[in-house]
Amino acid sequence: NFANNTCFEEEGVSADFDFGTDAFYYSIWYKITATQENEQTYKGLVYRNLNNGGLANGFQILMTDAGLVYGYIYAGTSNVSVMDSYSTADGEWHQVLFTTNGQQQRLYVDGYLSNTASTNHGSVSNTDASCKLALGDYRESGAGYFWPGELALFNIGKGFPAREMVNQKYKEELALFQPNAKCTLYGTYNVK
């Protein structure tokens, strides 16, 4: 839970999250009730941009006051956002995955394609010392739009996954969010 203006913040600035115009994706599992959703206008799930709230090249996933999640790319003069059509502030676990290949953007919710955009966005690279990855806040300093619910299992990587792969990933990870879950995730993970 990230209430009381707390969040996870990357230590230092990593060039691993500077994707330029290459394809990349990021996903996170979240759980929020309608009561928590009403606490503030926007709620930050994933944020990588300047910690003072200024905008530079980066990316984010937020939830609106209507309980809709959306992915956003900040890329110079060609920003792009893709929003879900349905509220997921229902107290259940959900997965959101946002992906871009530089020209096309896709937002998946619970393994299904929710919405798309076709925008040639600029470079998603930022070497500013304050451009850190944060989970649970709109700004990594903890002074922005905090996440009042629960977050789990953040993933980020290169590539533009196909619909079938996103749906398979969702189904495999869903087992972790069932009552009394006992399971193992297989694969190679780059943990630092």
Can you tell me about this structure?
- Mean pLDDT is 79; it is low at 188-192.
- Strands 1-10-3-4-5-6 form a six-stranded antiparallel β-sheet, with no helix packed on it.
- The chain has helices at 34-37, 163-174, and strands spanning 8-9, 24-31, 43-50, 58-63, 69-74, 80-83, 93-100, 104-109, 112-118, 131-135, 150-158.
- It is 8% helix and 36% strand.
- The chain is built from two helices and eleven strands, in the order ββαβββββββββα.
- With 192 residues, the protein is mainly β.
How does the SSE layout of this entry go?
Elements (H helix, E strand, L loop, with lengths): L7 E2 L14 E8 L2 H4 L5 E8 L7 E6 L5 E6 L5 E4 L9 E8 L3 E6 L2 E7 L12 E5 L14 E9 L4 H12 L18
Antiparallel strand pairs: 1-10, 2-7, 2-11, 3-4, 3-10, 4-5, 5-6, 7-8, 8-9
Characteristics of this structure?
single chain; 192 residues; mainly beta; six-stranded antiparallel beta sheet; five-stranded antiparallel beta sheet; 2 helices; 36% strand; globular; disordered C terminus
Please outline what is shown here.
With 192 residues, the protein is mainly beta.
Q: Which regions have little confidence, pLDDT < 50, spanning 5+ residues? A: 188-192
Using the alpha-carbon principal axes, give the shape: globular
Tally of separate helices:
2
Order the strands across the largest sheet as they lie in space.
1-10-3-4-5-6
* Total E-strand runs: 11
Radius of gyration based on Cα positions? 16 Å
Which class of secondary structure composition applies to the elements?
mainly beta
Strand content: 35-45%
* Order of helix and strand elements from N to C terminus: EEHEEEEEEEEEH
Average pLDDT score: 79
Share of helix among residues? Answer: under 10%
Task: Describe the largest sheet.
Answer: 6 strands, antiparallel
Head-to-tail CA distance between termini: 23 Å
